[in-house]
Amino acid sequence: MSLGVLTREITKPVPLRLASGIVNPDAIGFSRAPLHQAAGRETGQDRRRDHWLVSTPTHILMIATGRDQRGVQQRLWVLDRATRAHIEIAPTRPRDAMGSLPQGPETGPIRVHSLDLDISIDEVPGGTRLRVYGGRVQLDLRVGRPLIQQSLGTVVSHDNRSFDYVLSDLARPVSGRLAIDGRWEALAPECTWAVHNYSHGCHRRDLEEVRAEATGIGILASDSSVHRLGIRLGAGSGFLVDGVLAYDASTAQSERLEDGRIRLHGPRFELSFTPLSDAPADARGERRANVGLFAGWIEQEPGARFTVSGLTGWLSLPDAPTTTR
């Protein structure tokens, strides 16, 4: 799939498949809203993943649900920033989880339950409510949706039967309560952020790319003003500033530095990633990613460069990048 195809912007609702079951060629491209719709005949290879990363001053959380031919899955992962200790909760046996996921992002509630973990996600006025009960961890969060909030959706096709659709909803403010081992803390939206990643794929995903998402606060270099920032790298990259998306079809490059950081760069960004911990990248736990901190700069448009420091997110690399000094 040529990256040139990803320069085509989708501006109205479009089905992912035609009635015959083949990939809709009009769906290939990128969008600034959840415009791609599930349609046509699905196969046993179809899979859906719904993944949230929540960044608080004290913890990093990942809440994941999924559905494929083997059933539904769920997973909760929590990292303590100070001690680097983590909690991971998931059903101990395949098919232990029961529940349902909607056909598309933001189209219905998510309910996935097991003996170990209950996850409920609902679209509510002004945002999304996340409720999780998992033994040592409980949370009830409201993820706000600002009045200006674009997202980045991309569809790439490997042949006329297989595709990958990914929707990234970045830098959304979070309020609510989180309890670890019975100790509750209130979360304030000015310092707690969420990234929502929804994917729908058929057949094996092409992993030969750098993939990352991050959220937090950045500073405009020209006047030192503070802005809400989100970053998505992958099959098409996006930089969200105060809810407005700047899109870049170029591919991110990576290098591993001798001090353990990873350099990520492209025409519109220069970032370093400091890993904090290995973490699950999906509800089944078979795919892994690194959670950590991003620093450097991004460019929303020529002359509008933002300095970033300590943006929280995740990073997945296709293979070991080149090591440089």
Residues in helix, %: under 10%
| Dominant shape | globular
Mean pLDDT: 88
Proportion in β-strands: over 45%
The number of E-state strands comes to 27
SSE run: EEEEEEEEEEEEEEEEEEEEEEEEEEE
The total of helices stands at 0
Q: Cα-atom Rg, whole angstroms?
A: 19 Å
Q: What distinguishing features does this structure have?
A:
325 residues; mainly beta; 15-stranded mixed sheet; ten-stranded mixed sheet; 59% strand; disordered C terminus
Molecular structure report:
- It is a single chain.
- The strands form three sheets. The protein has a 15-stranded mixed beta sheet that branches. A ten-stranded mixed beta sheet has the order 21-20-19-18-26-25-24-23-22-27, with no helix packed on it.
- The radius of gyration is 19 Å and the shape is globular.
- The protein has strands at 9-10, 14-15, 29-31, 36-37, 46-55, 59-68, 71-80, 86-89, 98-100, 110-113, 118-124, 127-134, 137-144, 152-157, 163-180, 183-187, 193-202, 211-220, 226-233, 237-241, 244-248, 253-257, 262-266, 269-280, 288-301, 304-316, 322-324.
- With 325 residues, it is mainly beta.
- The relative contact order is 0.16.
- It is 0% helix and 59% strand.
